[in-house]
């Protein structure tokens, strides 16, 4: 049986005395893209942070890319995880090219991939613009360029369509198809169900801190 890339079993997270996640069971298998929906404040971002090994759960167990959620081995798999959150994770005073080149150097990618990645996401003409001078959509494109360079095995996208026009939104599909083709997996959080559903294999809902199968309109 193929091992899941993400395997969460009865995972719980508390913020002080407040439970955020309660008994979450969720698996993402090789080549699978899972959509995640839920109301504002339901814990979707918290769940992605657990999956990215950035937050150790207070209850339950599981693994990410074979590493236990609470084991030191989780630090060794972080370079195989690509997380794009609500706020672009760019150095504001560096140009888009400098931000992208920095990541390329970290993973040992050849210098030539930077220009190719920026061109693929439509930023070739803005490569020298500082990130702080760019729109949210442009910054999001730069983060997609970094995913093309790092080629993570697990992609986690939090409202990836936010701020993107129709043409840029096609990049989300491209990123997901790329990770699928490498037998990687992904989780896609989105409030735009019409954009999300064609891109995913199944949709789950986070409600009352737990994951359940999603019924549109329920």
What portion of residues belong to β-strands? 25-35%
Helix/sheet category: alpha/beta
Q: Quick one: overall form?
A: globular
Distance between the termini: 33 Å
Order of helices and strands: EEEHEEHEHHHEHEHEE
Number of helices, where a helix is a run of at least 4 consecutive DSSP H or I residues: 7
Report the uncertain regions: none
Determine the fraction of residues in helical runs and give it as a percent range: 25-40%
CATH class category name: Alpha Beta
Q: What name goes with the CATH superfamily? A: P-loop containing nucleotide triphosphate hydrolases
CATH architecture: 3-Layer(aba) Sandwich
Number of strands: 10
Task: Describe the structure in brief.
The chain has 218 residues and is α/β, with parallel strands linked by helices. 31% of the residues lie in helices and 27% in strands.
Describe this structure in words.
31% of the residues lie in helices and 27% in strands. The protein contains seven helices and ten strands. The chain starts with 5 loop residues before the first strand and ends in a 5-residue tail after the last strand. It is an alpha/beta fold. The longest helix has 16 residues, at 166-181. It has a six-stranded mixed β-sheet with strand order 6-7-8-3-9-10, sandwiched between helices. A four-stranded antiparallel β-sheet has the order 2-1-4-5. The chain has one domain: Rossmann fold, CATH 3.40.50.300.
Key phrases:
6-stranded mixed sheet, globular, 7 helices
Write the layout of secondary structure elements.
Blueprint: E1 6-15, E2 18-28, E3 33-37, H1 44-51, E4 59-64, E5 67-68, H2 74-77, E6 81-84, H3 96-106, H4 112-120, H5 136-150, E7 154-158, H6 166-181, E8 185-189, H7 193-196, E9 202-207, E10 210-213
Parallel strand pairs: 3-8, 3-9, 6-7, 7-8
Antiparallel strand pairs: 1-2, 1-4, 4-5, 9-10
